[in-house]
């Protein structure tokens, strides 16, 4: 088999359930590697449901760790500075192996729902930052991401994809379970729970929360520098942050750029009135009894 044939056969495959959560087939096959991942006590875990500001908060935290030195943060692409722990694709990437080679303190990215996180993170009482974004914007962003990132199955039409999203039949499972699961867990562990909409509205305030959580003191001018270098427009132009360094057979930016709009409320350009009504009704049921509150626009 030529290399290209191999590449074709890893893409657009159906998701595989791991303990009831749909994941990429390659993660499911190597699940034992993920499960037995050894965290270190000084690891910082960045956990999100996909398309919720993962890359954004990763860039902010890396800037904090490097005292606002933007040049240092251009030492490598964001996915190498903050490896995606559970992402394993045979012959292409292995987040677990990448992390093993990294010096401490490590930044670790995960999209796993709380119940699938390797137990060593709880055992080591690692600090964790969780970012949540409103469901409607996530659904739209995820739809475009499915189109361009070919490890996902075909998304189908927007209507079809929205149905899958609502029933949790997408990679990393149900958004509703994900945000609620991590929200509950924050009561017992060192988890800073942030909201994408709050970060958009007032990045300075949210970065201050991060600094406090990480026991870091930075002068005001450094904080302002971090705000500037982590802004959407600057990150979108930064090859170390915008994923354009990923080969196009893997992520096709001509279909949709990885960093598409980075705004709140874009769902209004995609949802029909009927879809929105149906979504809202279903949302009420699924989020009933949770103290979590989201804003679908700012």
From TrEMBL:
The keyword Cytoplasm applies. The keyword Zinc-finger does not apply. It catalyses: 4-ethylphenol + 3'-phosphoadenylyl sulfate = 4-ethylphenyl sulfate + adenosine 3',5'-bisphosphate + H(+). GO terms for molecular function: aryl sulfotransferase activity. Its EC number is 2.8.2.-. SUPFAM superfamilies: P-loop containing nucleoside triphosphate hydrolases. InterPro entries: P-loop_NTPase, Sulfotransferase_dom. It holds the Pfam family Sulfotransfer_1. Its main location: cytoplasm. Keywords: Cytoplasm, Transferase. It is found in: Cytoplasm. One of its GO terms (cellular component) is cytoplasm. Gene3D superfamilies: P-loop containing nucleotide triphosphate hydrolases (3.40.50.300). One of its GO terms (biological process) is sulfation. Residues 41-290 form the Sulfotransferase domain. Belongs to the sulfotransferase 1 family. This is Sulfotransferase. The gene is LOC102441160.
